[in-house]
Amino acid sequence: MLQQFENIxxxxxxxxxxxxxxxxxxxxxxxxxxxxxxxxxxxxxxxKNWDLQKKKEFGAPLNELKKFAESSILQKETEFGxxxxxxxxxxxxxxxxxxxxxxxxxxxxxxxxxxxxxxxxDIELGPEIDSDFYNFEALNIPEFHPARDMQDTFxxxxxxxxxxxxxxxxLRTHISNMQVRYMKEHKPPYxxxxxxxxxxxxxxxxxxxxxxQYMEGFVVGKDITYANMxxxxxYVMKEIFGQDVKTxxxxxYFPFVEPGAEMAISCxxxxxxxxxxxxxxxxxxxxxxx
Length: 290
Fold this sequence. Notes:
Blueprint: H1 2-18, H2 22-33, H3 39-47, H4 52-83, H5 104-118, E1 122-123, E2 129-131, H6 132-135, E3 155-156, E4 169-171, H7 177-185, E5 190-199, E6 211-220, H8 226-241, E7 247-252, E8 260-266, E9 283-289
Parallel strand pairs: 1-5
Antiparallel strand pairs: 2-4, 3-4, 5-6, 7-8, 8-9
């Protein structure tokens, strides 16, 4: 029996010395350690029928033979693994994993929020789907008010939630729906900026879109004047566009404020000299206020 073990060990060494690739190595592994027909596996199957004395005498040598086969084959597998990858330079930096990035609109929104935050403003988000009460009526725009004609609205086939004011559900046409909501939950004085998306039922063209980003802010407190608003907006424009940018206010009409104004900044392209971007005026309208 011991002579048989020795012969098998010599055959393993001989077979492993002649293998030239992973496929032939696998055949050697199956020949000796295969679950069904491996010669060493069959010896272990016969071990069950040996008497106690034979098990004591040949059990340990049989285990040593199996360990020899496993270690020899594993060593050969390692050698093939190294030889097959000698052309790979593991010191070369791998291909970087590409990550997503924030949309340019999101980046500028965060930049503006940061400026207002530094001035002590709160940043508040609100629902894009709201009732006509918060979007119109709470802002003194009743059902047949002409100001509603200025904002073509997407109405939804939904019912206003129970115990909530309003007659219909819509996609908000402005961020002003958050003014009433914010004022109901906070006591003055306060200063808040309200960013988000708004929706208008508009015909699409090069300068009109039905969904766009919007940002609105308002301040409530004692001794707050028009001058405070002018200074704040001028400061924000300079923080966003550069300290050399100039601002000016022009009287204008907006349904929610009186007096209302449009703020313009000096053209960033021509520096106020006049170009096609600013329509030769040197100024670009940037926001409405009041």
